[in-house]
Structure formats: C-alpha cells, structure tokens
Prior knowledge:
alpha+beta; about 35% helix; 4 helices
Amino acid sequence: MFKKISLPTSKKETYELLITSLKELISNDDCIMSILANTTSLIKYFLKGVSWVGFYLYVDNRLKLGPFQGLPACTTIEIGRGVCGSAFEKEQTIIVKDVRKHTNHIACDADTKSEIVVPLKVNNKMYGVLDLDSYQLARFTKTDQYYLEIVCNIVSQILSSLM
C-alpha cells in the first residue's frame, strides 16, 4: 500500500524517492496495465508542474493511448507524427521547451506549453513511449530526461520478466 509522504524540495531527491517508491510498488506486480497505471500515478504525484503523464503503446503499427493521469488525450498517434511519434521513430528522448514553436506537435490539451517524451523498450524492442506535459514553459530539463529514462528502464525490466 502506498502512503503519502512529504516530498523533498530538490529535483534530484524527488526523483530518487520516486524511483525507490516505483521499485517497491511494481517489482512484484504481474499485470502490465497495473504496472503502467501505477507508474503514471507515481510520476504525477511526485513531480510538480506536470499536467499530464501517460504511456502510448505500440499496437498495430501506431501508438495507442495507454494508462495515464490527466485530462482526456489523443487516442491514436501515427509513428513519426507529433512528439510521441517522433520519439518512438527515433528511439530517443525528446524535450520540447515550447510546444507552440514545435512544428510537429499534436495539441491534445491547448494549454500545454512543454513536453518530454521518453522511449520505452521491452526486450530490446520499442514498446511505446512515456509522455509528460506541463502548463509551464521549459518545465523539462536534462535532469528530468536522466531520471525518466531510469524510470522507463525499471518499467522495461519488470515488463521483460512478464513477457
């Protein structure tokens, strides 16, 4: 059971506590959807200034909306389209400081100002992406990238053991 805790003030300490909590929460779970759902919930709980967090999963040559926290979102994204489709296609994290200046951005929430998308590989194959949005400009940094890639690696290891 998850118990509410006081969050640290530094970004590094917050992420380290998030990662410790994530490992404890999902390491013995055997349901892919609950693992992904609890991961999004923890991220939304721990990270200030995040308006939306969720997974898009690779299904039938497209990205389909998976577990998320936030307002309703786009349900299907073509590979190469938008920040999610581009991060999936390139297999690399993309940080967008101002989505209004990003020519390939898909606006699911008109108030979103910045975004980070992290690829999720399972058994060395692209499985989907982790997408975070914010109503703040330039909310996401290389520090976020570093720790969110660790989060995706943890999720990947757990999912790999189930497949």
